[in-house]
Amino acid sequence: MNDAQPDILFIVLDTMRRDRLSAYGHRRNTSPELDEFSTGATVFERAVAPAQWTIPSHTSMFTGLYPSTHEITEANRTLSGSYPTLAEILQTGGYHTVGFCNNPLLGVLNTGLQRGFDNFYNYAGAIVNRPFQTRRFGLPRPLSLRWQRFARLVSNQFAQNDWLFRMSLNPLLTPIWTRYINYKGHTENSVSDVIAYTQRHDKKQPLFTFLNLMGTHLPYHPPQDALDRIAPGLHRDKHAYQFMGRFNADAARWASPADPPLAAWERQVIDDFYDA
To answer: Do both 186 and 266 map to the same domain?
Structure first.
């Protein structure tokens, strides 16, 4: 690393709301580590996401363009080669570029957002790809690569076919892909891999690292100790847990207005789980 080309770490806390961080005045102590970091950092008082979901929002972050310009507003679209990405620009400038992603919409689908990365590792879905691995799923590397190609093909079919996509949102199927197909990736593995990768990297070349974390993304399954700290006594409310079980399974409601509208106590339960 040098002053002219410093190492860059770009972290996306996927679906993290600004107004839920205690660093921005939230009434609950939700972000003590970020609070401490912010005291010596530049803090933006106005920061607005250009879109409400993964693909258009990340495309805007990677290109500096509004969704109305880059037009990547659906899962089956691919970014035009006429729009260079941040990774491509830095790669051209001599950076080694690497991504660690826990969001399957970004790490699996063929959106063009992996352009410019020398290495891109995915921790979500049926295609888990970590650095320093020689075997995956207990399979030798050649077989694991074939499995990755097959799983990627299936994933893109779900993104491109409206009927398949809507079918996957069925409450009976949602628990399968959210819990058993690693929908939210693995935070601990990705963070430890970033640290190891950084330590092994040749310090003579500047490093650009992108890290996407999904801890605050639905479905909400916060650690029990965090939930007890944020909402003491909630663990005794069986109705709250039953409601969250249903809400976590109803993926079709995640991105659309609640119909019928949520009751006040239901909104409070969601707030508690989110803050935790």
So the answer is: no
Q: How confident is the model over 157-170, as a mean pLDDT?
A: 55
Contact call for residues 276 and 227 (beta carbons, < 8 A): yes
What is the structure's pLDDT at 181?
65
Cα–Cα distance for residue pair 242/246, rounded to 1 Å: 6
What pTM value is reported for the model? 0.84
- Segment 76-124, tens digit of pLDDT: 889 999 999 999 999 999 999 999 999 988 887 889 999 999 999 988 8
Backbone angles phi, psi at 127, to 5 degrees: -115, 90
Structure tokens at 87: 């990774």
CATH, residue 45: 3.40.720.10
DSSP 196-254: HHHHHS-TTS-EEEEEEE-TTSSS----HHHHHHHSTTGGG-HHHHHHHHHHHH-GGGT
Examine the domain organization and report whether 210 and 270 are in the same domain.
no
Domain range spanning residue 243? Answer: 227-276
- Are residue 121 and residue 70 in the same domain, yes or no? yes
Q: Summarize pLDDT for 198-226 with one digit per residue, the tens.
A: 999 999 999 999 999 999 998 899 999 99
DSSP letter for 116, please.
Answer: T
> What is d(CA 139, CA 268) in angstroms, rounded to the nearest whole number?
45
What does the pLDDT average to over 247-268? Answer: 78
Pairwise CA distance, residues 273 & 276, whole Å: 5
